[in-house]
Records
---
Amino acid sequence: MPLDLVAQVPGTFTGPASQAYLYYTDDKKHWAPGLKVAVTR
């Protein structure tokens, strides 16, 4: 699937962290840091 993206605002951006756990075991969560991207132009 082709996808063309155009950056409008330069800067460094970080998405929110995410978590995963099995049903009924929320005490054993695994956290992944948010993805970071740097837009230069």
---
Amino acid sequence: MHSSSQIFVVMAAYMAVVIGIGLYFARRANASSGNYFLGGRSLGPWVTAMSAEASDMSGWLLMGLPGVAYWSGVSEAAWTAAGLLAGTYINWLVVSVRLRAYSEITGDAITIPDFFSNRFHEEKKALMTVAALLILVFFTVYASSCFVTVGKLFASIFSADYRLCMLAGAAFVVLYTLVGGFLAESASDFMQAVVMVIALAAVLGVALVAAGGPARIAANLGRIPGFLELMGFATPTLRQGVQGVADGRALFGAAGAYSLVAILSILSWGLGYFGMPQVLLRFMAIRDARELKASRRIATSWCFVSLFAAVAIGLVGRALYPAELLSPGASERVFILVATRLLPAVLAGVALAGILAATISSSDSYLLIASSAFAKNVYQRLFRKDADDRRVMRVSRLALLSVSLAAVLIALDSDSIIFRVVSFAWAGFGASFGPVMLFSLFWKRTTRAGALAGMLSGGAMVFAWKLLVRPLGGAFDLYELLPAFVFSCLVIVVVSKLTTRPSQTIEQEFERARSSSARN
């Protein structure tokens, strides 16, 4: 059997297992909207931790991050990984227990917009509506990055048309998510997190052996200016967007340099975790808040191993194949290149199933959360307050199809760079939801007006900084999440101080949540 055929068989078997999980949980998922959207708050610590990390990292972990390391060296990839690791730990340590308690106290919220609205006892639901619309916008972008990943994966393996591959992958993800809901998503995400970390470890192991070990790799890469510097970066020499090659080696110019401000900008990726709905929902869904400590240890350990391996694969891939991937978009195929060149076909299929696992585990979360935000927080709360669970879930599935179609249209561009697409959506959620979540949980004086102003200003600043300010370069060349996050925090404080103090009932709920979380 041809190697690509063997790879296809292995990956098809994997997809069949994922569909089986969806079918298994379909009956429980369809019992109620609470089960479909939040799994009835029944997740154990392992599933909570592993599904949170798998849904968070996506195909970006196995393609985008190694691609950055392959293209410009260790610095941006390593600082990004460091920020993400710190953000993961702090989010589980600080936010998880308080949110689990608070979301149950404030009307048993089952979506993030629900929580924000219930937290401030909204009557006109403006905060909830804005949150739901932001989820629709940014998760559409997120889902498109997943579809790009699966399109590049299948196109690279089978030398097929990118668009057809992307459409096939999108159809599979949509079908699976429609059937199983949150329980299926979380259970399969646990399995997919295991597959992802095994794939990363296996590919890194064979790559290290093939490249001659760490010392030889370091000597090889050390000849590239700035490639192994934490305060600098390599600058590929481009000719019409393609890196030049001479005597079988890719060409680089003089090393670039990072300032301390630029490093802080990259580290600010960690701030995004405070606003990530796919992670925050796992905090709300765990069966017992006392199990969150175990989940934190599991999640942080998984995150460390996976991020380290992903960055290392990009670096070792450059040592092994210095002139194979000659554009930023092409560099994101380094994991695929190493796996298919160095592993037997069947094992390569298992490794590449890791990319598929990452893509499925994230895109199903994005689609489910986006569709639930529309069905529960826009349709039911604003237009059909008397809608029963069956109608809400029907509308949710229609919304899921609509979001998927929009994501597919964005993903039609085969030159999309996964890392950049994800970074924009990550900044959007981090700046619009992150500050509001932190202040809602930990500052009793936060008002509804302050939360709404902070959410709007954070989201708007992401667009303004990305499109208008950052192109100015120099000191303004910062990742948009950092200035937008800080701006949102300032707006929340100022507007809250200028508006009427929250009611006594709201403050009492805050104290109950604080006391409940302190006991856990």
